[in-house]
Write a structure and sequence with these properties.
single chain; mainly alpha
């Protein structure tokens, strides 16, 4: 069976776009980055070793392009949390509670260190192995495992804190049966017009 690099590119294009959007947090810049990566992948096709992980190889090229461009002229600037980055994750379908749970996860995810977010994207969202993620990031497998573990622990503690805050009754809120300090017991606005005469 011969290796078809164009077929592999087409199969991995959605993953490359998601990873690029994660890196640059802007749809247009991410598309530019992916196009540059595709050109680089096609021009270096003879360097790919069939039988190895194409996705990891392509992600490495994409990631290196991003960091090279960033070092060269600061073109890709981290804008912080961006609405478009939500497209990286699968859209949540379901009731309002699942949508709120996803928003809580998304908020907690962006509070992680960049290196932890990156490994969660590679290992979790993109489905790469620890070994492939270590090759992409240029570090040891143990480092990737450690980052993933710390990221999961931190996510869990942040989500637990969000859940605990949601379960607490709102403090300093007047009870429905008791009037507010600034509110008289008979609110003039609630009386009918004829009772003011």
């Amino acid at each position: 069976m011969t290796f078809d690099i164009q077929k592999e590119l087409m199969e991995n294009l959605p993953h490359m776009r998601a990873f690029a959007r994660f890196l640059v947090k802007d749809r247009d810049r991410a598309d530019d980055l992916v196009q540059d990566a595709i050109v680089r992948v096609l021009s270096a096709a003879e360097q790919f070793e069939p039988g190895t992980n194409f996705k990891a190889w392509a992600f490495t090229i994409l990631r290196n392009l991003y960091y090279n461009e960033l070092r060269r002229n600061g073109r890709f600037v981290d804008k912080g949390e961006d609405v478009e980055v939500a497209e990286i994750f699968t859209a949540v379908k379901g009731d309002q509670d699942s949508t709120l749970d996803f928003r809580d996860f998304f908020r907690a995810f962006w509070q992680l260190d960049e290196s932890q977010r990156e490994v969660l994207m590679l290992v979790g969202a993109s489905g790469l192995s620890y070994e492939d993620a270590s090759k992409i990031c240029g570090c040891k497998v143990g480092t990737i495992k450690s980052r993933v573990s710390r990221a999961r622990q931190q996510l869990k503690s942040q989500l637990d804190a969000i859940q605990q805050n949601a379960e607490k009754p709102a403090e300093n809120q007047p009870k429905e049966d008791q009037p507010n300090e600034n509110q008289s017991t008979t609110d003039q606005a609630s009386l009918p017009d004829n009772s003011l005469k």
